[in-house]
Amino acid sequence: MPDEETLEQALAGGAPQRVGWFKFFFADERWEWSEQVQILHGYQPGTVTPTTELVLSHKHPADRQQVAATLDEMRRTHRTFSTRHRIIDTRGTVHEVVVISDRLTDDAGRLIGTHGFYVDVTPTAAMTKAMVTAALTEITEHRAVIEQAKGMLMLIYRLDAEAAFELLRWRSQESNVKLRTLAERLLADYAALVYEESLPSRETFDHLLLTAHQRVERSGDTVSR
Question: In what helix (H) or strand (E) does residue 100 lie, and over which residues does it extend?
Fold first, then answer.
């Protein structure tokens, strides 16, 4: 029977194909895209320098105005942003994406921009109540902590099971924290939220997801490379 370390490597191994990071710097309005985000937009890695104009040019015409307004507010107020919209890559293929972001600070703690990631959720564009039911089933029937965390991401971000796992795996790799440890931290963070009838804002969940690794006890919980 494989040991825990072997199982961890099997689950977390390989590069996630549906998730990639971005950064935006307020001072010079400069964008950075990971290789995955470049590929998502239809570019070979290293062949494109993203700008706000380029970012907007790839938005679906029906979504462009709303995204432009969101980006304009981000530049004016220096707030983070999270959206679900469609992009069109260089081949004309439409992708539905979820964009999640948090504050980007320098070593002195000064706010310098925003950073986050794109999740390609194209297969779930026609999501219905049946998928929400499936997400709840993931939580109640599977007691493994990774399955529970995956189920929570499915509900919060309206992802299918594969995209939710890719997102969790990507955060594990980016933060160099074991998949199970990261899942446990996320579940503890979500359980600690205080709210009444309405769920907390998406901004709250985005921040917890992007900073969970900072609240992990590091001894023995990093991933072997």
Answer: strand 94-105
